[in-house]
Amino acid sequence: MLLSGTGLQRMASRVLAGLLTAEADGLTAADLVKRLQVSPASVSKSIGYLETMELVGRTSDPGGRRERYTVHEDAWLRAWQADTKAHANVTEATRRGIELFGADTPAGVRLTQMNHFFARLSEQMHGSSLTDAAVRDALTVIAALVYAARALTLDELATSLGWPPERTAEALDTIDRHPDLADPLMLQAEGGTYTMEPRPDRLTAAQREALQARLLERPQP
Asked: Which of 2, 135, 184, 197 is close enough to 202 for a disulfide, judged by CB 3.0 to 4.6 Å?
């Protein structure tokens, strides 16, 4: 039941549990059929499913006529790596979705929230590889774009900071890969220029309208 709760198919969970608790070094398909009281077809299908997930492997029976199935020694590492890759794929897919729909559309806001969640999860599973220097450079670029209050090209940004273009590009890439560094802002890249914009999901539509109304109420100098 616990394995099924992690997303494994129910029968595959039973087969995996059977292999995990077996006293022998692996079980044959016939052993699993007898142990679980299920059909050979169910066992065969579940073994195939577990093999695609790289949780289970097969070896030749000492007699050479049958195969024995065992749980890989590094099964949990493989499962972890598969999850990490899946989260990274979701992060990339949502990023493309934001570009397609636009960050300020209802779909874009939902995809932005999803992107930030899976990006953070993927980063935590990988282990953060950010150095203090990389974080400082990213924060400096964020501050520069906020201070400029207009779109800047990579060369303009690098010249203003007195940095080589390569260092500036790495800082921009860090912000793109770790959007939480800029929260509640987000990096916008369009036409070869960069700006920092408020994240659309931090304020509701009603809050934005109220703020806009306040701005309109201010007397002009």
From this structure: 184
Higher pLDDT, 62 or 207: 207
Length of the chain: 221
- Read off the DSSP letter of residue 26: S
**Token duo for residue 33:** 């059929």
> Is the C-alpha dihedral spanning 157, 162, 163, 164 positive or negative?
positive
pLDDT in tens, 48-89: 999 988 889 888 876 667 889 999 888 887 777 777 778 888
The 3-state DSSP class for residue 195 equals strand
What residue type is 70 in one-letter code? T
What predicted TM-score, i.e. pTM, was given to this entire model?
A: 0.49
**Pairs from 8-15 (Cβ < 8 Å, separation ≥ 24):** 9/46, 9/49, 11/38, 11/42, 11/45, 11/46, 12/46, 12/49, 12/50, 14/38, 14/46, 15/43, 15/46, 15/47, 15/50, 15/56
* Cα 145 to Cα 157: distance, rounded to the nearest angstrom: 8
Omega of the bond leading into 184 within 30 degrees of 0 (cis): yes
Q: Is 110 exposed, middle or buried (0-12, 13-18, 19+ CB in 10 A)?
A: middle
